[in-house]
Write a structure and sequence with these properties.
- This protein has helices at about 5-25, 30-45, 60-65, 65-80, 85-105, 150-155, 160-185, 195-210, 225-245, 270-275, 280-285, 315-330, 345-350, 385-410; strands at about 50-60, 120-130, 135-145, 150, 220, 255-260, 285-295, 300-305, 305, 310-315, 335, 355-360.
- By secondary structure, the protein is of the alpha/beta class.
- It has an eight-stranded mixed sheet with strand order 1-2-6-3-7-12-8-11, with helices on both faces. Strands 4-5 form a two-stranded antiparallel sheet.
- Helix 1 (about 5-25) runs antiparallel to helix 2 (about 30-45) and helix 7 packs antiparallel against helix 8.
- The model has no long low-confidence stretch (mean pLDDT about 95).
Length: about 400
């Protein structure tokens, strides 16, 4: 394997800075996001046999207005509980609707409510590099080029992020359960439901303090999205160029699919579309997915064991290979489970359809988000640790060669 040069990393970072300048803002489905996809496609057209855009439809507002919807439902449901008659029943129904919306959109990154929100065009950028001899397997190398609106909870006082996010959810669920119990006629002790009803009223009133700030969870501007995740797309471009030029040996038996998705920030809509559109062919030709996301700090580099809020299991075999590769390169990785509340990466959508997938991230998953730059205006190239990008590129190169070597041993 050729040595990864510091000039390679500098070039990746410079291109990332340039593309941000040309395409900002890159909210999912926006003109800037489309331009970024076109730039990546054009770059892969110079190094790959095929390069194209794959279009799909998405509904970003279903995800980005989730916090406002949850807050609005809470403030609508609460007053009904204070009314007599069927008030608690109406309140319970509205709270339950909000809970279902949150679970579908956030916990499982679902699409049940998408049709209620405006459509936006999505575009995944794809480059395909054929092997030197025959195709025995393929590796899909994945990043994403969209960015998110600035998260006000991470822009200011990020150390309090977990508390500010978890508290309204806890109050919403407590109010929801309490309203259901009252509506169902559950009684507490000799005083009938006199204790339960006042308690739920108190919960609803106290919860407003934590719920109302959700209206300002997202700001009006977009994050530059350098580490999350444009730099990984430019890393894949550099990787394709190294393989094209001979700076790295071209795989003999492994087709490489370079994929940069749109809509990752609103529930992995781009990878969802790609994984389902190409599921049959990925199952027909042995396929591995290697995902890179948020290569921000080298000390936080980790290989995920689970994805999508911890509900989807990634390949332990591929994770083990990545850990071994990194250790051999003197760039050790951790193996971690993706915590609930963290969202997910594109790898999870491929794992959902039965494709062996792994994902490397470079961001802390601690509850205390102090010092993190992603989803904020601070997510610029200057905030990226070049060593994290270097490690991502080195592990990707070794991963390709090792898997290709395995394919060469197949009869």
């Amino acid at each position: 394997m050729a040595q990864i040069d510091r000039e390679h990393i500098r070039d990746i970072l410079d291109r990332t800075r340039t593309l941000i300048g040309e395409c900002h803002p890159r909210l999912p489905g926006s003109p800037g996001c489309r331009r970024a996809a076109e730039r990546l496609r054009d770059a892969w057209a110079k190094s790959c046999e095929q390069a194209f855009l794959e279009e799909f439809t998405q509904h970003p507002a279903s995800f980005f207005t989730m916090n406002r919807v949850l807050a609005a439902v809470y403030l609508l449901a609460g007053p009904f509980f204070f009314l007599g008659g069927a008030g608690p029943l109406v309140s319970a129904a509205l709270f339950s609707l909000g809970t279902f919306f949150f679970i579908d959109e956030f916990a499982f990154l679902g699409r049940f409510f998408d049709p209620l929100f405006p459509k936006k065009p999505g575009a995944n950028a794809v480059g395909i590099m054929e092997p030197a001899t025959d195709v025995r397997q393929q590796i899909v190398l994945v990043a994403h080029h969209d960015s998110t609106p600035v998260c006000n909870f991470l822009e200011k006082r990020p150390w309090a992020y977990a508390f500010r996010v978890v508290s309204p959810i806890v109050f919403h669920l407590a109010a929801n359960i309490g309203a259901i119990l009252v509506a169902a006629g559950v009684r507490t002790g000799p005083a009938g439901d006199d204790f339960l009803r006042p308690a739920v009223k108190l919960i609803i009133l106290a919860g407003c303090v934590f719920i109302v700030p959700l209206f300002r969870y997202y700001g009006r501007t977009a994050s530059p999205g350098a580490s999350d995740n444009l730099v990984s797309g430019l890393l894949l471009v550099k990787l394709s160029e190294l393989l094209k030029s001979g700076g790295e040996p071209r795989p003999k038996h492994t087709r490489l699919v370079f994929l940069s998705t749109d809509g990752e920030e609103n529930g992995q809509r781009g990878s969802f579309a790609y994984a389902r559109r190409h599921r049959a062919e990925m199952l027909r030709t042995k396929t591995y997915v290697f995902n890179l996301d948020t290569l921000s700090r080298s000390e936080d580099l980790a290989c995920l064991k689970t994805d999508l809020n911890g509900f989807v299991r990634l390949s332990p075999a591929l994770a083990g290979e990545c850990l071994k590769i990194a250790a051999g390169l003197g760039r050790p990785l951790k193996a971690i489970r993706f915590p609930f509340g963290g969202g997910g990466t594109d790898a999870g959508q491929f794992a959902r359809v039965g494709i062996e997938s792994t994902s490397i991230i470079g961001i802390s998953t601690r509850l205390n988000r102090g010092g993190v730059d992603y989803h904020s205006s601070r997510d610029t190239v200057e905030a990226i640790d070049p060593a994290a990008v270097e490690t991502g590129l080195a592990v990707a190169v070794r991963f390709i060669h090792d898997k290709d070597g395995e394919a060469g041993c197949l009869s």
